[in-house]
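Predict the holo structure. Ligand: magnesium ion.
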Amino acid sequence: MKTCRFIRKDGVVWVPSPDSWLGGWTRQRWLERHFSGIPVRSASAATWADMSEVNEVYVLCEVSDNFTETSLKKFRQIEKKREEKILVQKFDTYFCDIDGTIFKYRKFETYKSSPAELTPGSLEKLIEIKKAGHMIVLTTARPEDLREHTLMELEQNSVPFDRLVMGLARGPRHLINDMDPNNPGERAVSWNLNRDEGMSDVTVRSP
Ligand SMILES: [Mg+2]
């Protein structure tokens, strides 16, 4: 889920200033997809604080290409309910590799000179996981200094995720978890996928 606060004022959409230049660039492209034709400007922290005192703040939210506008007050209530539901309902966490799994495999040194290309069906599978309510943690050996670049690639390909863990060791990944004595069944699951062949073998549990 992608979100951004905004204020409509005198035919202009105002948003708070972005955290980074690149973050601002990708956010601007995203905002223009929704507010097409309406000027979108970012306000300095001081201006935003002044504006939000006297204007209603809204939240633009996108889930799988569906945009909604909600007042900040209402959005916070919905988020609170959603968090409470997550605590009660037992959703799963999917730890998912990026290169060779979501994107076709490329060598580290070619990340910036070649485009990221989705593997067959990987995006659809990730959307299915999110729609079922589960959490997606992307795990990659890409170094931290490629974070902005990686976020841009994920953004450009509309890859849904909740966390991005970078700089992992390059060997196999092991998932360790305890079993619930009251609810028998495996609680550490893994899939070994053929490189670049997509994620169709991955099954998504209904919570
Ligand atoms: Mg990989």
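The mean pLDDT is 92. Helices lie at 21-34, 45-54, 72-88, 122-131, 147-156.
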